[in-house]
Amino acid sequence: MNNLENNREQNSNTSPEKGFSRRQFLLTAGAAAATIGLTGCATALNSGGRRMVQTVLGPVPADEFGPALVHEHVICDFIGADKTGPQRWNGKEVVRVMRPYIQQLKDRGFNGFVDCTPAYIGRDPAILRKLSELTRLHIITNTGLYGGAGDKFVPQFAYQESVEQLVARWVGEWQNGIESTGIKPGFMKIGIDEINPESDKLSKIDEKIVRASARTSGKTGLSVTCHTGGGAAGMAAARIFIQEGGEPSRFVVAHSDGHGLETNRRIAEMGAWVSFDGIGNSAVEEHLKYVLPMLTSHADRLLLSHDRGWFNVGETNGGKIRDFNFIPDEFIPALRRSGIAESMIDKIFRENPASVFQLQSSAG
Hints:
Strand order of the largest sheet: 6-7-8-9-10-11
Largest sheet: 6 strands, parallel
């Protein structure tokens, strides 16, 4: 714990947020390695057998990525796939507005931040790179397509191209970088709509996206975070991913907060990850009701995050930004009060994110 508190003191000369004590930081050892890899790491992704995570500034050792939040957003543009694009926002303004929020998280001892904004909803790797440079926080961006929200954010080419053509696109971003930035994705972000539990069928476009993500994962070693509208869709997507040859431990079912304990346990038993990424949307006690049972039975398949941030393109100063402080300031202390051991807290925020986002040995 001393390493983390020392790291936090070095990163900030300002007073902590109200209600947060310097001598209470949250997690156990190891958050001090923020500088390794943040200058454009030339290390091979599996050099010396070390597990690596691909960030916007290059690969970093997986055991230095955490503590991490696994499902957050810097910028989002909800206008639709046919209208969005970098012409709709000012990157410098986004960096100016979002930097303090990213810095607050870093000052609390967190090292990693997974940006889950997909292509065609405001994904901008250059903004993430600048924020990472300024704050020394490891940030990951993604490849993939988002089929949720009634497919509003699915570009027309996705309907016309085959599964293999989509795979080629995503593998291309992994090999060559996203657009002209040269920045490589560290995972895939996809989305699917809710389904009728009785039919157990995804829409055609959603099924195509899931199948393409499984094949891309096999070729690149990237994990997949899947936005779900409900537990039935999450189960169906996990099954398709596995049927396509995807490794279950590379598949994250997002927004599992409301899926219910039985569904979440079934997903974990399949070998996939259950992500409670709405922490902070309710009172602490409400979150504990579904987090604690999973910690008892399936802690090795559990992820926690906020799904916050959201510089909203089109709104003045990005609209109402939601900070990333609830977990460090309120929820982790609540876990401690509930009797959760430091080793378990360390597992959830360090070991599990490292496991999900590490690149498999076949990746390159």
